[in-house]
């Protein structure tokens, strides 16, 4: 959607000079760091600016392109590392190679689930600040509100071409669609993968979705035939501001695993096509590829991985596709001035554990949980000639930092709104100067609207149960106890003192800048070719509201 | 001790020709593989022999030297890998570098505890075949029997110089000492690290050994002052067949953490000295360095690792020492013809979990357990010009394979005894030809005398409780469920059929070649300078037997 926060024309392009005059509103915890390191950071920022100017000059005045690949539901350790490849019996050579060509961000924290992680990256904010929790698979009439200013919107202000391909999961209402949130072009499923790969006959036969298909059970007492999603919009395509069209789905057609696989192949094809298109233009680009794979609940006809699980096989397939995309980037001649970021959005959905292969690895927990297994993900960033190859950084990074950092690298910091809290920290110095130059040593970890834990340095406190005193909160040393199994009761006073101060600072900033509301509306508005069954489903949904 | 199995003189040096005529007795499971692959392996062995001959010719007729470094109690993933370094906050750059210079054995299985793993490597056999279970910290009057034929004894038959430095843990009786089991020279503690680093005042003050020192508790009801080890022999040194002398310990002296640290430093110094000595001689060498670190239970004055735990810090220190040793190997000019193997003996002793940093990582369980966390260890092998650098192999290897493989590489296969089961498989083809050329797809996993699980390919069956039918045994897919948390009940019939056949084959071989007895004797015989308190302790020990 159009920017609601309009900058005076004279400021366009003024960049960091303005930013220093009107600082970004960060959380209280960051201000505590700025009080200690502000002067050193200001001095370092002069060098950072000089380096960014130099890089841009070396590229004919063009700021770097961004290729942002966000993979769904992958545990920390599942990709980019030989040792863990062997543990799981999955080969990810393309991602391993990418890891050696850039910097591995070893303490990347996300939100614990798909929608909030993606919102945090797009807006630079903990999603709860915009009322966003988790967007469900079914109809909700909710989503990312127009009032949020997204990274592609900011980048468009300084001339970027933008495109989005793949999973979106930011809501089923018009204002939330990617082509209304800063993308020139978008191809995406309206919902997510549950109805696309799990709620299908094949998944029932794989023992992953019991009784979903009527033929799979005795229906003697069945009343509500609409308990299971029906007629949902599948994949759509659109240009910015224009109408969306559902593709590859006819009235009355039944969704199948074959269609899901075709959809994945189409997105891969479109990622390649869009990359060719935006790379051929003069303007810099921001290309976002959010694959649906490895999410998949049907066994392959012939396993390609040693693991053979339905998730593992698609991850291995996807790794090859990413190799193809990076090869295409090379072919276009734009690779040298393109920053590639590849990461996962959260841990494995280990609720489907067991024989599926969706199990815990190094860290305990998984998707939906504040445990490290939910919010620690693999993350790699390549910037040829700038980021030292084959490096790694143990500094803490949060997914919202991508927003602020990419905005700065693009010279668009001035377009970050100043009327709200921005959680994302500018980590440009970390990318340019390497490990130890991060500007964050904390993360607040939410599950939906609830603050569940606080990370500071090597410690992590799980919030006490409601009504319990702070001293009852278990605190863990993440290096010594990566699985958060042995709270430091009796070994530290952190839980009762310093961590409680952190929480108070966070709450005071929320009081000063209250959360706004999630966007609301009629589902599927702006899609021109709704199928009759889709219209029926939407009408029923709206009828009782 | 001298070889009991004496070969006719004419066979000395006859090597593999003889070996083919009088095959090594392997377990039944291996014969099932040989029935399927025997012809292909025979053909491959002709090439392997040619390659070994060629390598030896290129080194003036001298077979390769061996430097075997065995590290105590380290979890799979703790060393040699950047990702896991970051997880634990421990840097192991020297070992990581070694990993890139050779092959990482990604499925190395050990026995689950120190003594049995070391026995398996020395004898090529599951230790229970010689009656060896776990040798305790205190006086036992037991140990590795003379009747076992060790790898250094075999290598001596073809002219190797041998030396052992560091942990030994094969028993407190004369026949078990390393200088009586094939080593020309040895420096080692008679027992292990528990009384050297845990049963000391400093460990009590680190909250790791409660009440060990009388001053640490009220002794109102104390009767037995000898419940805690007293007067045990600490470190000794000896030449082959000669008397041993205890070093650095006077009558009445109290053992301390400072003395433990000095002992570790001495072994490191002696490893460097012995390496210099054996490298300067014409004969090939087998040098064995088994550090006592990282076992340690006292916090450092100033942490060197990000982890800061007492185990982590010593692992990081040890990593630097290993770097020094490898640099020394380079200096001596023998690195090119030296095979370096570095591995751990079993998983972390996570019974000291919690704030210590001794916690579970990828695999569940640890030392003493048949779970993957107990028996899967990091293992790296470097052989310049022969093993492809920066490779990895997912083939299953058991620590006993080192015995058989090193014997073959040294041209000493003919000296492997044929009157007993040898569990170690010759894995030379794997080293020469890389991943996929391993000759084992199974492991029997014992806890002491009890068979607790059976690994075959990607599956692992935990044996059912006594009296339970085979079908009740939980079976796991190790790739999909590395933590062995979700047994495949209902997903496979392996437990009830094929795995039971494997166990029967194993039992039948035991019936045919029954286990022998552990060595027995009077503790400390052959040590010339026993302290009075040591003599007292020994006399009391012997008095009631």
TrEMBL record, chains A, B:
Q: Does the keyword Metal-binding apply?
A: yes
Family in the record? Belongs to the sulfatase family.
List the protein's name. Arylsulfatase
- Highest taxon of source: Bacteria
Check the UniProt entry and state the signal peptide residues, or none.
1-19
State if Transcription is listed as a keyword: no
- Alphabetically list the UniProt keywords: Calcium, Hydrolase, Metal-binding, Signal
Against Pfam families, the record matches this protein to: Sulfatase
Q: Where is the Sulfatase N-terminal domain?
A: 64-411
The GO molecular function terms of this record are: arylsulfatase activity; metal ion binding
Q: Which InterPro entries match?
A: Alkaline_phosphatase_core_sf, Sulfatase, Sulfatase_CS, Sulfatase_N
């Amino acid at each position: 959607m159009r920017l609601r926060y309009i900058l005076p024309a004279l400021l366009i392009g003024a960049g960091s000079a303005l930013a220093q005059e009107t600082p970004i509103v960060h959380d209280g915890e960051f201000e505590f760091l700025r009080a200690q390191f502000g002067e050193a950071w200001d001095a370092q920022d002069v060098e950072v600016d000089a380096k960014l100017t130099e890089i841009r000059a070396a590229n004919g005045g063009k700021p770097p392109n961004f290729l942002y690949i966000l993979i769904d539901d992958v545990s920390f350790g599942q990709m980019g590392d030989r040792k863990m490849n062997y543990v799981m019996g999955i080969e990810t050579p393309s991602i391993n190679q990418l890891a050696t060509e850039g910097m591995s961000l070893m303490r990347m924290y996300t939100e614990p689930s798909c929608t909030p992680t993606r919102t945090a990256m797009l807006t630079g904010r903990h999603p709860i600040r915009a009322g966003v929790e988790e967007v469900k698979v079914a109809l909700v009439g909710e989503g990312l509100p127009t009032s949020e200013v997204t990274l592609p919107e900011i980048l468009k202000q300084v001339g970027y071409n933008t495109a989005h391909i793949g999973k979106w999961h930011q809501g089923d209402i018009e204002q939330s669609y990617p082509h209304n949130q800063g993308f020139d072009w978008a191809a995406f499923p309206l919902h997510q993968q549950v109805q696309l790969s799990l709620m299908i006959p094949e998944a029932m036969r794989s023992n992953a979705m019991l009784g979903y298909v009527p033929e799979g059970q005795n229906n003697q007492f069945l009343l509500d035939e609409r308990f299971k999603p029906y007629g949902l919009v599948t994949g759509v395509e659109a240009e910015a501001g224009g109408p969306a069209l559902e593709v590859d789905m006819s009235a009355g057609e039944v969704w199948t695993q074959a269609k899901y696989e075709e959809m994945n192949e189409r997105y891969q094809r479109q990622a390649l096509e869009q990359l060719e298109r935006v790379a051929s233009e003069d303007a810099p680009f921001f290309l976002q590829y959010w694959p649906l794979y490895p999410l998949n609940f049907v066994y392959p006809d012939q396993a390609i991985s040693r693991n053979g699980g339905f998730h593992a096989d698609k991850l291995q397939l996807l790794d090859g596709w990413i190799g193809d995309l990076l090869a295409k980037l090379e072919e276009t001649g734009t690779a040298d001035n393109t920053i590639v970021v590849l990461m996962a959005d959260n841990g494995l959905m280990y609720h489907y554990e067991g024989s599926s292969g969706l199990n815990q690895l190094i860290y305990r927990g998984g998707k939906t949980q504040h445990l490290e297994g939910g919010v620690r993900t693999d993350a790699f960033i390549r910037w040829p000639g700038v980021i030292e190859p084959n490096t790694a950084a143990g500094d803490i990074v949060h997914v919202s930092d991508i927003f602020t950092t990419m905005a700065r690298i693009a010279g668009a910091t001035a377009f970050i709104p100043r009327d709200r809290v921005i959680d994302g920290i500018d980590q440009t110095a970390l990318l340019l100067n390497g490990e130890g130059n991060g500007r964050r040593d904390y993360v607040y970890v939410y599950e939906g609207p609830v603050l569940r834990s606080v990370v500071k340095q090597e410690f992590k406190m799980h919030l006490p149960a409601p009504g319990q005193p702070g001293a009852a909160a278990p605190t863990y040393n993440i290096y010594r106890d990566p699985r958060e199994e042995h709270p430091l009761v009796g070994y530290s006073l952190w839980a009762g003192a310093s961590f409680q101060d952190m929480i108070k600072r966070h709450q005071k900033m929320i009081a000063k800048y209250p959360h706004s509301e999630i966007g609301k509306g009629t589902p599927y508005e702006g899609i021109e070719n709704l199928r009759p069954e889709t219209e029926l489903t939407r009408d029923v949904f709206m009828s009782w509201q």
